Amino acid sequence: MYSDTHFHFQHLARRFGMSGGAGLLAAMAGNGTAFGMDIGTRSDDLLPRMESVHESLNLIDDAALRHAAAAFVCFSAGIWPDPEAIRQRYAAVAELAAQIACGNGAHSLFPGRVRAVGECGLDHHWNRADESGLLEGERELFAMQLALARSLSLPVVVHSRDAFADTIGVIAECGYDCGVIHCFSYGLAEAKAFLDRGWYLAFGGAVTYAKKRALADMEQLLRYVPADRLLLETDSPYLAPVPLRGTVNTPLNIRLSYEFIASARGIPSESLCAAVDDNCRRLFLRA
Predict the structure, then answer these.
(1) How far apart are CA 141 and CA 135, in angstroms?
(2) How much is the average pLDDT of 186-191?
(3) Contact between residue 62 and residue 141 where contact means Cβ atoms under 8 Å apart
């Protein structure tokens, strides 16, 4: 239960130390976590992230918890659209492809555990001005990673902030509809557009931030998403849910998001956990 489809383990390990990271993984295993995905943001970060997880796993004294934690951890590899990555996109995507091949290879620390490309996509909160073709390069970087995912038969973890029209436009042009819109931050109409194309939607701690006037709309959105397209995430160490907002988030806090979303949908948390676990298996653990 309490699968977490999006966290940044290396960032957590830097904050809490490797022993603290080991404690998080052990606690997740103790809670019965079925699936957890450590998310990439740079072309060259996959192998170092695997090393961080491996080192922390080795610090778990309890063999049963260590085995359980090693069993649920998977990885994505992708390039977040920062300006430098956009400018160096051809070399960056080549490096990303090489890291995925190595990370999924027989001699990897976690062979076959790279289960998605991402997070990648568009961010028009930070990338606003089309200086020197920045926005066109951003779209191209996204399209290149969609093409890479298709060539590897992997789903895509999409970052889309203040960029709905361009995001769905690039997806439509590429014609690859397989993955999840991470930290979904749009409304009902946008949700329908992604769902109609076959995408999953992931929600995390930010859903608990809705103020009273917006709460009804948020609850309507959470009820609208079909049970077989819904994923939950923390994006930790970011976006801690209420009442922990403003603190360092961890995968252990995802329980609060499950409880909030289950309440909005009018179902027990256990039912939501079962549905999300099934969705994780269907999307990320396909043969």
Answers:
(1) 10
(2) 97
(3) no
Dihedral sign for Cα atoms in the order 3, 237, 161, 285: negative
The torsion defined by the Cα of 39, 43, 44 and 45, in degrees rounded to 10, comes to: -10
Using the Cα atoms of residue 98, residue 77, residue 23 and residue 19 in order, give the sign of their dihedral.
positive
- Give the pLDDT confidence score for residue 129 in this predicted structure: 76
User: How confident is residue 96, by pLDDT bands cut at 50, 70 and 90?
Assistant: very high
> Residue 238: pLDDT band by 50, 70, 90 thresholds?
very high
Residue with tokens 């309490």: 2
Residue 6 tokens read as 């999006």
Residue 222: helix, strand or coil by DSSP? helix
Residue matched to tokens 């996509």: 121
The pTM score is: 0.97
**Tokens linked to 122:** 């568009």
Sign of CA dihedral 103, 104, 107, 111: positive
- Burial class of residue 233 in the structure, from the number of CB atoms within 10 Å of its CB (0-12 exposed, 13-18 middle, 19+ buried): buried
Nearest to 46 by CA among 79, 89, 20, 6: 79
Res. 287: pLDDT tops 70: no
To the nearest 10 degrees (0 to 180), the angle between helices 254-265 and 269-284 is 110
Confidence check: pLDDT of 227 > 60:
yes
The angle subtended at Cα 90 by Cα 174 and Cα 97, nearest 5°, is 75
Residue listed under structure tokens 């948020």: 218
Kindly report the number of other CB atoms within 10 A of residue 111's CB atom: 11
The β-bridge partners of 159 are: 121, 182
C-alpha 185/C-alpha 228 separation (Å) is 19
Biggest CA-to-CA distance, the chain: 54
The two structure tokens encoding residue 82: 């920062």
- Reported as type and span, the H/E element at residue 258 is helix 254-265
